[in-house]
Amino acid sequence: MDPHESHSDPSDPEAVDHGVLLVGHGTRDPAGTKEFFAFARLAQSQVDPGTLISPCLLEFQAPTIADAWRDLVQRGVARITVSPLLLFSAGHAKSDIPDEIESARAKFPTQAEVRFARPISRQAQMIAAVRHQIAVGLQSLGRDPANADDLNDLRIVMVGRGSRDPCASADMRLLKEVSLFGSDSPTHFTSADDRSRSRVRTCFYAMAKPSLDQTLETLLHDRDVGGVLIYPHLLFSGRLHDAIVRKATAWSKQRPTVPLHVCPSLGVNERVAGALAERLRSTW
After folding, report:
1. Which of the four pLDDT bands, split at 50, 70 and 90, describes residue 54?
2. Using 50, 70 and 90 to split pLDDT, how confident is the model at 60?
3. What is d(CA 152, CA 147) in angstroms, rounded to the nearest whole number?
């Protein structure tokens, strides 16, 4: 696939005033890459007129940040927003992407005003997307999210990618609180008592504790568990989601009588695209 074919211009290219560098992490997985560019097209349909989303990738594949920057500079846009398509603010958002922008700016100078958007994190529509994924996952297990009795023996495991940045780990834990214990949560986990909290675990695939392995080991010895829902908090398909599925499958072989479901990644998601559009509007 030629990644440049995935750029989506507004209907009137001459009217473009605002360029958005939508910076994805990048993956070697072709399915995840395809999803990223499809998401960029979806996001283009939700932004304001005169805004052009130019998708680019931090690692592994083209177009690079420098490629997208050059294209926007050559179009003569008056404003540029650097928008990391990242779930939380950690090393990539705080240093790697700004460093790449400085390098690109030195090669391709511009008089455009440049601003950095924050990662989409816990923006309202992101919370809605997470809640929807979990509610659908519960239904896949035959559980009614709004029925407390249906959730008594259920364990929900929310898995983050993991980071050495303590703020990113804290954000993942806060995501659990807002998504499952908020007053408008679609599940019956509206009480933040110890019993409810014991049913919901936050863990990380790497670089932060507790790890997914540790959490699954704990659940292996939990004789009260009657079902497990694993929610990987990931934007797109890729090797990390595949690895989480493998670990869940291995766990299930040790507890074959316990139903288990792994949610898909968020993917090309209307709610996430809406969250991005709102983040862009709030940047200016």
Report:
1. very high
2. low
3. 9
More confident residue, 77 or 92: 77
Alpha-carbon distances of 105 from 53, 68, 99, 101, rounded to whole Å = 18, 11, 10, 6
Amino acid sitting at position 62: A
pLDDT band at 95 (very low <50, low <70, confident <90, very high): confident
- Tell me the C-alpha distance between 97 and 138, whole Å: 37
Ordered alpha helix ranges (H), the chain: 30-44, 65-75, 91, 97-107, 124-140, 148-151, 166-181, 194-199, 212-220, 239-254, 270-283
Angle, helices 124-140/166-181, rounded to nearest 10 degrees: 60
Is 231:263 a contact under the CB 8 Å cutoff? yes
Tokens coding 65: 């940040």
Q: What percent of the chain has pLDDT over 90?
A: 64
List of residues 6+ apart from 223 with CB closer than 8 A: none
Which pair of structure tokens corresponds to residue 279?
Answer: 């983040």
Q: How far apart are CA 98 and CA 80, in angstroms?
A: 13
Question: How distant, in Å, are the alpha carbons of 68, 71, 155, 172, 280 from that of 284?
Answer: 20, 21, 41, 27, 7
| Residues 58 and 67: beta-carbon distance below 8 Å | no
- Which tokens belong to 156? 């929900």
